[in-house]
What we know:
Number of helices of chain B: 3
Number of domains of chain A: 2
Number of strands of chain B: 6
Number of strands of chain A: 5
Order of helices and strands of chain A: HHEEEEEH
Oligomer: heterodimer
Distance between the termini of chain B: 9 Å
Radius of gyration of chain A: 19 Å
Helix content of chain B: 40-55%
Helix content of chain A: 40-55%
Distance between the termini of chain A: 24 Å
Number of domains of chain B: 1
Amino acid sequence: MIRSELIQKIADENPHLYQRDVERIVNTIFEEIIEAMADGDRVELRGFGAFSVKKRDARLGRNPRTGDAVEVEEKHVPFFKTGKLLRDRLNGHED
Amino acid sequence: MTSKTLTRMDLSEAVFREVGLSRNESAQLVEQVLLHMSDALVQGEQVKISSFGTFSVREKSARVGRNPKTGEEAPIPPRRVLTFRPSHLMKDRVATGNKA
């Protein structure tokens, strides 16, 4: 399923809404999650999962082509942990 | 930087501000989005949200695990796990936004 298919499903379920409003709604949800993480915040969606930011320490890496040591700066990366309900559903335990 | 936790309520509040539906309907729409994504994943489908990221389901085969506390061996049955791969855009925005 891709973004446009998700939008279509929501539109089908809500015939009273304009398609362009459904697009704005879906885009707002994903945009809000990215913005939160860019601010260093966590987004916890019970049953689905939690988005958080993990810190990767600075390290000495290597250029794989030349083998030269290069300093890699500390950085922050997005992380997702699956919620319990969804994890159970994936394995066939419908509540 | 003090970090806080957002929930469904914050997402529906954002939808409420953006589109001007009632708070109640905004909350229902957030729920529908999460439900459709979950349903697709449970069907074994990949969910690919451009400029956000990709959720995919991976099959893990059975293995013998160990209780880290007691050291006892415990069989882990085959199972399906969900992985999330963030888009470049998400990675860039998270890296830039959290730069010291």
